[in-house]
Specification:
Helix 2 packs across helix 8 and helix 5 runs parallel beside helix 6. The longest helix is centred in the middle third of the chain and has 29 residues. About 45% of the residues lie in helices and about 15% in strands.
Length: about 280
């Protein structure tokens, strides 16, 4: 007798029940920053969980390749070539997804820069605020209302361990992530009573295209797959996840034990040791 098995093995033997996960968060997922790095890793995880996926990115060739991969797994895809830092781009996302049964949103599109704030390009810093703060706030408001009405859904919003303290050479990046962390915690508490789960994801250094954009190099890093895998496992179980050993060490070794001033000093020393311009 054939007995279907609806499980997907995640980190350290933890199991996500595919059918229950899709019932809560399916049948469509929306993933921003989908064509590389952490966003791409989320798409890979969601393919295993049998989700139809709206993929958003800025590389048309990569979007085409990823769409074909999704469809080879007998799933549906919709691709959007958009720069989400531009105000009108979000309306195109909503026009596409409002026709679909969306239950999960992964907000992964983002970038950083490295160097002293006053020496970095001001327009890039403004764009960072638009993409990380304004765009994600609008998307959470839109999908949060949909999920509230349907009494189910999930929002996975990428932040960073730098959200917890000011960080030299990444002042604006740590600031936008501080906004995201506080925002995620707040809306998570508000939406919980509607059976909507919000997860803030705070990775440490991750091996992605982020380094090239920021013009720096991580000397130690976790994999994008580790981040996506731990996030899927944590959705509905935690408010914040620190995926990977490095993120856990950097966060838990400092927070709750030291004064803020000392934490900032130690973290910035660690940042200097882990990052090469």
């Amino acid at each position: 007798m054939y007995i279907p098995v609806y499980i997907h093995l995640t980190l350290k033997g933890h199991i996500v029940n595919n059918s229950k996960f899709r019932e809560k968060y399916g049948s469509w997922a929306v993933v921003s920053g989908a064509t590389n790095g952490i966003g791409r890793a989320f798409v890979e995880e969601l393919i295993l969980l049998k989700f139809n996926i709206v993929i958003i990115g800025r590389n048309q060739d990569a979007l085409n390749e990823l769409s074909k991969k999704i469809e080879r797994n007998n799933l549906k895809s919709s691709s959007l070539n958009l720069d989400l830092s531009l105000p009108n781009s979000i309306d195109k996302v909503f026009a596409t997804t409002d026709k679909l049964d969306v239950g999960l949103v992964v907000l992964s599109a983002g970038f950083g820069n490295y160097g002293e704030f006053v020496e970095n390009n001001l327009s890039d810093n403004c764009k960072m605020i638009d993409l990380h703060c304004k765009t994600r706030m609008r998307m959470c408001h839109h999908y949060g209302n949909i999920f509230k009405t349907q009494k189910r859904g999930g929002i996975i919003n990428l932040s960073s361990i730098v959200a917890y303290q000011g960080t030299m050479q990444a002042a604006n990046y740590s600031a936008v992530n501080a906004f995201l962390q506080n925002f995620n915690e707040g809306i998570g508490m508000e939406l919980k009573k509607y059976s909507v789960d919000v997860l803030s994801v705070c990775p440490g250094p991750v091996d992605t295209g982020f380094e090239k954009t920021a013009k720096m190099k991580f000397l130690l890093s976790s994999s994008a797959k580790t981040v996506a895998n731990a996030s899927i496992k944590s959705l509905g179980r935690k408010a914040t996840v620190f995926p990977g050993i490095l993120a856990k060490v950097l966060h838990y070794s400092l927070h709750g034990l030291l004064s803020r001033r000392l934490k900032v000093a130690i973290y910035n020393l660690a940042f200097k040791l882990l990052v090469k311009a």
